[in-house]
Write a structure and sequence with these properties.
The chain is globular. The model has no long low-confidence stretch (mean pLDDT about 90). Strands 3-1-2-4 form a four-stranded antiparallel beta sheet. It contains three helices and four strands. By secondary structure, it is an alpha+beta fold. The chain is about 30% helix and about 35% strand.
Length: about 110
């Protein structure tokens, strides 16, 4: 008997979050950008799951930008480090959302945040 091939893929998402009580962001931050690897049958499902999990963590998702699957990113010429590929594989194996990086925003960082 052969194992049924999973239809799950891993998508790279950049999520911008605002402030919320108990969000764990540094004092004085106006929000943050989170680089996430999320599994889903399609990008829409990956986005929905990511937003739901971030809300459960008391974060306030404002905007999500999708950068595609590993294969799509490679086809576009992205240079992807081995540790990034490992996190993507983990997200696939665990059918999960992995926050790989968080960059807090502070007033004046880009001239538009207040």
């Amino acid at each position: 008997m052969t194992k049924k091939e999973s239809r799950q893929k891993v998508f790279t998402l950049l999520v911008e979050v605002g402030r919320n009580d108990n969000d764990g962001l540094p004092e004085g931050a106006t929000g943050a950008a989170l680089m996430c690897y999320a599994s889903g049958i399609d990008e829409a499902e990956a986005v929905r799951e990511t937003v739901a999990i971030l809300k459960q963590a008391d974060l306030a998702p404002l905007d999500v930008s999708g950068y595609g699957t590993l294969e799509e990113r490679i086809a576009e010429g992205h240079d992807i480090a081995d540790d990034e590929k490992e996190l993507m594989q983990r997200a696939l194996e665990e059918n999960s959302v992995i926050v790989a990086q968080m960059t807090p925003f502070f007033e004046g960082d880009d001239g538009t945040r207040h």
